[in-house]
Amino acid sequence: MNTATPSSVPTDLSSEHVTVTPSILYFGTPVVLLSTENENGSFNLAPMSSAWALGHVIVLGLGADGQTAHNLRSRRDLVVNLPAPTQWPAVERLAPLTGRTPVPVGKRGSFRFEPDKFAAAGLRPQPSELVRPPRVAECPMQLEARVARAQPDVSGEFLIVEARVLKVHADPRIVVSGSQHIDPAAWSPLIYNFRHYYGLGPELGHSFRSQTV
Ligand SMILES: Cc1cc2nc3c(=O)[nH]c(=O)nc-3n(C[C@H](O)[C@H](O)[C@H](O)COP(=O)(O)O)c2cc1C
Question: Where is the Flavin reductase like domain (predicted)?
């Protein structure tokens, strides 16, 4: 049983550290669902968590042999859909699936090909306004975007994608009323923390640059 709750993790700098060799370094980033367009005009949906924003550009790290990476090399439109913490079971229904056939060698045995991932996840496609792939209707935040640059990472195993956000859609319940701000008290990302799903805990404080109270 895991008894190390965040409040019990020591933070004083004098504590001893040990050297460890973890198999993964997923230290807790938001889960996004990427909708992209397949060769045949159908749409793929894939969960990923190596994603962050640089201004209005989203940077994505994608396995080079996945269907999403194949799609984004040739068709630049995508939607970055952000699920809420309660939607983790739908994300996990997508987890063992790939839109790529034949299934890439490294995924054989643990992944299966699925041409309709929206249906497999129990999620509804919702038409986008500026890009071809649909949004995920159930996701409280949806970013329509277009690839500006896609290049291999240093290992050659991943594709690093920089996508410019064209339009942001938000559930009105997560917007500060009468403003353009997302309300951090109403919105929580779904966090992928060493292959476990978490939401956010209570607020600890805010940055001097925050524009919401
Ligand atoms: C929560 C979660 C986070 C993931 N994060 C990433 C990621 O950041 N990059 C990546 O390439 N794959 C990630 N994956 C694995 C992909 O979802 C998986 O490779 C999938 O088969 C890709 O689908 P596709 O081949 O249809 O694109 C993640 C999976 C889950 C469930």
Answer: 27-200
Residues 148 and 164: beta-carbon distance below 8 Å: yes
Top mutation candidate among 43, 49, 80, 198 for ligand 1, by most atoms within 8 Å of CB: 49
Domain 25-183 has CATH 2.30.110.10: yes
pLDDT digits (tens, 9 = 90+) for 25-47: 999 999 999 999 999 999 999 99
The predicted model scores a pTM of: 0.94
Angle formed at CA 193 by CA 112 and CA 151, multiple of 5 degrees:
65
Which atom of ligand 1 lies closest to the CA of 197? 1
Other beta carbons within 10 angstroms of residue 92's beta carbon come to 13
